[in-house]
Amino acid sequence: MAPHFVFPQNLRALEEEDEPADYDSRIYAQSPVDIASMRPVQLEEFVKGVAFDLSDKELFCIEEQDVLDRVYSLIRGFSSLTPSCKLNLVESLRSNLSVLLPNVDSLSRVSQGQDHEAPVLDRLTSYRNAFKIYTFFLMHIVLAEESNTSHSNNQKVTATARKKQPMNSWNWEAQRSRILNLIANSLEINLSLLFGSSDPDENYLSFVVKNAFSLFENATILKDADSKESMCRIIGACATKYHYTEQSCASVMHLIHKYDFVVIHMADAVSWAEKKYADGTLASSIIREIGRTNPRTYVKDTVGAENIGRFLVELADRLPKLISTNIGLLVPHFGGESYKIRNAIVGVLGKLVWKAFKDIDGEVSSKSVRLRTKQAMLEILLERCRDVSAYTRSRVLQVWAELCEQHSVSIGYWNEVAEVAAGRLEDKSAIVRKSALNLLIMMLQHNPFGPQLRIASFQATLEQYKKKLNELEPDISSESVTNDNETCNDDGEVDNVQTEGVDKEQQESLSDSFVPHIEEGIPNQDSSVPDVGNLEQTRALVASLEAGLRFSKCVSATMPTLVQLMASSSASDVENTILLLMRCKQFQIDGAEACLHKMLPLDKSIYEAVENAFITIYIMKNPVETAKNLLTLALDSNIGDQAALEFIVDVLVSKGDISTSTISALWDFFCFNVSGTTAEKSRAALSVLCMAAKSSAGVLGSHLQDIIDIGFGRWAKVEPLLARMACIAIQRLSEEDRKKLLISNGSRVFGILESLITGFWLPDNIWYAAADKAISAIYTIHPTPETLAAELVKKSLSSVFDCTGGDELQNDINSTSILTTVQVSKLGRYLFVLSHVAMNQLVYIESCVRKIQKQKIKRDKMAADDQNAHDSDITNTDLPKENGINAELGFAASEDAMLDSLSERAEKEIVSGGSGEKNLIGQSALFLSKLCRNFSLMHKYPELQASAMLALCRFMIIDANYCDANLQLLFTVVESAPSEIVRSNCTIALGDLAVRFPNLLEPWTENMYARLRDPSVSVRKNAVLVLSHLILNDMMKVKGYINEMAIRVEDDNERISNLAKLFFHELSKKGSNPIYNLLPDILGKLSNQNLKRESFCNIMQLLIGSIKKDKQMEALVEKLCNRFSGVTDIRQWEYISYCLSQLSFTEKGMRKLMESFKTYENALSEDFVMDHFRNIINKSKKFAKPELKVCIEEFEEKLNKFHNEKKEQEVTTKNAQIHQQKVATMEGFVVDKNAREGSAESDISEDVSDGEVVDSSMEGIPESQNNVSRSQFDDSEEHSGASSEVTEMETGDDEVQSPRTNTKGASRSRVKKSNVKDVKGNISASNRKNTRLKQR
């Protein structure tokens, strides 16, 4: 019998000889040659000889011993061969195997024509041996060369290795793909002719599969498409065609768990096997193996769980129908703890819904089953939106977005998905909110209802088609018509009969939907409704319109939530919200336009997203439409929005996004050149132009005359704010345009401004804002503004008093009876003009000083340049010497000091005047001070008080002496003024004063913090803003009153609460986090205040949460523990322990807590305190290492033991007190003498026949005790209701009884009956007192 070739365990094992009993039963290498000792020439000749024999002899010559030994020797030393030798050997082996494969079929035909079986069997054995040996050697060549290649790749690449190789060199990648392709082809022929059965022997399959899977571990091979395809064919053929499934499944699972890069390639191999052989056995086996795996395994093996999840999704993408039949094996993993597996199954369901149910051909029953399966998958996806893991919730929403994009969501489920997405907008996780926003964007983009989703349009169209439907079915009652809000049946899906024909058209594209055609008929509702077909089609259309209306209402209802998300601290929230609002505006969702306005005053961190949205929505239009959009924004914006709008317009003008054509269109609106322009639109156009002038100064210069004529002309009386805007435009003029204005219309402009300030043609509510800007405009463009300002003050004064000087003013001050309603209004205006002029004078002085300083710097720089230029000239050597002497003598410093002195003197002269004389403003300042102190007059005229206090605050900001003199008055008003407007203004002024004169305000710090307790919301809000500004900008030190700011975190007003939280958030970013140092003090003060427990916990949770450093946390542990020993209040113990439980404990922090046990041991008797310590222990166990965990468990036992001991001590103490009270009660219940003489004496004479009374401490004689107690009970019940209550209460108390001791021979105290009465009478007073206390 011819020997057989058996695949050895490895290449070297081919040399091993079998046992003598099995001699000649196996082919092996008997005499290998050591090629390492050969010279290159000899080796090359040796290889050529082997190649010649392989090509010249028969195909199965490889089983000849000599040939086998020589080939084996070359394969064993393959890595040491030269490239040409490798090429010759590989080509010889590969060509022989490739010729052998087609000969298998010819061998079958020859064997059928011969009669003798023995020669045929021998020949068949030779072919089988040759097939195995060629496969064995070729596969080992691949393994050896790949091992050598990977080893060389790990080494550093030298310069020579990067040189271009010659064309005839060894190209391993091409050879590898040819070899693997040949082995794959060998598996696809009819191998049953060689192996005599349907499957090859397991030895052969095991060898091929094992080495093929080992090649998958090499990522380099997988990059070669041809090699990868051949490897996939090998695995597919072995696992499917030759039923080597179980071992292949195990290898696939091993590779997926171990290597992440192999996941996609394994999915390709498995799907190729199913498609090639129409057999999904391998895929089904893998899914069953995954389904059988314990879910807890994936919790520990997170990498493996992620790889398995990716594999499942990839496989579902390639084999959706096969996976849909096996999905039941995977669904139980939804109950596992690994969110990665749940994410994967969610992705699998998404792929199946998209791809597995596209083919709707077949029988009705199978179609119904497939539809029910799809519906069940959709229900699971809806349910998973409430998964406990945020990652899974986010993944589900992403899958829904993919399904919407692929038009795989029916109308019946559309609104359910929309409602789920709207609900997830309020999810606590940012990634879930992001996915929900993206889902809504995708649903709008691919909605099946039309490009316009206005609620009114849907309602109008729906009503028309409902009427049409009623006409088509007159016999059906109106009850069958569904309501507007009912769009689907109980199962959440519109009947397929009604929507099947509609759904196909709707899901093709938006233009194919019914709504665009329907909306054409909306303006003419009386016209006939377009006919859409028969009764069934009309019903389907009505159902579709109802679903569309529900969807539009659902998206519109999310607008308040979207406004909240725009204020989120997460940049992704804001950016995606803006994108969603842009999409909502595109589809005309109700409320989207108003929400988009909220994006303007946003943080600079997401400015890019805001700018892109702004350009897309408002700027990327034609110039007239862009101008209209900007006008609308300017009209509808509040002060904060206008500041943000000004910033973004400034940027866009500088970038050129707002073109000159848009600027021209704005001027047309301002000049009323566009029909339909109103005064409000003209004012808004000028406002936008003023915004643009910040970056382009020449914008306003071309229409100076129009600004004057329209801004201060007749249109200003129609729109009073137009005059204010014209004043702002004058301030924004460039230097060149200001000069032109002064030359051409200077006197006219100043006359107009003067009439605006001193005249009465503007209403009061507009005049103050206009006069403010008018005075500022005068100080901006007038060459000597102080002269014109003086005239303004005098004219304003003369309109109030018939005087022009200070003396007459003082006379009028003393006579307040002349005030009338008209004079009060004029006085308020005068005080405003006076104070605003004074404030602008201060600003003007500072600007003049800055100009002088700039000129000095410029002059010094020119002198330095001249010195450098003439440094080499001999004639100018005296100049630098002179400058050096001036510097040494300090003339430059004296010049700066002189400038500072002049500036300080000029500022003082504004209010105080010079040389002891008071100017008009100074005289008015004295009058103002006296006026503000006249509280009865101020309370009578609150509007006058507002103007007076505002003027007083401005004067105080200007002059330090005046400020010091009136600080007491200011704080009196800010605390006691009945008007919250006055208190708010004064609170804001305190912030300005603290910046200008910090030393004067420092003693009043507590009074400033007291404004946080003001009953008015506006005052508290302004106080929070002012203090936040001062503290965060280091203008005020954080004093011991910061607890007042902490209380505002729990303010009833949400705006104030958010501002306080923002303050502490920003404070925590400063330096080394000041909150760490402030926390113990805040804790102590909050504990002593009457705060709700919930409010205290929320405040401390916020403060402790802002401390991130481990060292600070550890130090706080020690600080808080030390506070236990300083307090005895149980409530403070509870608060301190709560704060400890909120800390993030490290190992060092836990050890500090254990070491500080003595400080808090007394507090452990309280249950609340103990609960907080248990929370600390539970959290610490999660991160603790084994050593620390043991310590924590011992510490826990110690705490529990001490707690129980303390509780027992308390119970014992309580019972002792109860026992003492009982004893006192037993001895002390005495009735009144008059009521007791009859019955009490008889009772005592009966009970104590000897005249002896048993001592209360003796329990040895139960009869006497029972008698005494019985007499007590009778007396108390008969004579005292209070004592009966006490007795009942005491008998219900739990008492730990001490063991009784019978005392024999106890002495008895003998007393007379009268003595007994005296004793009881003496005790009765204290007994009644105790009774009253208990009742109380």
How would you describe what is shown here?
This protein has 1336 residues and is mostly helical. The protein is 71% helix and 0% strand. Helix 55 packs antiparallel against helix 56. The longest helix has 49 residues. The C terminus is likely disordered. Keywords: Cell cycle, Cell division, Chromosome, DNA condensation, Mitosis, Nucleus. Belongs to the CND1 (condensin subunit 1) family. It is found in: Chromosome; Nucleus.
Could you say which overall geometry the principal axes of the C-alpha atoms support? elongated
Could you say which structural class the secondary elements and strand pairing correspond to?
mainly alpha
* Proportion in helices: over 70%
Number of strands: 0
Region (Disordered): 473-495, 1236-1336
Subcellular location: Chromosome; Nucleus
Domain Condensin complex subunit 1 C-terminal: 981-1141
Domain Condensin complex subunit 1 N-terminal: 84-246
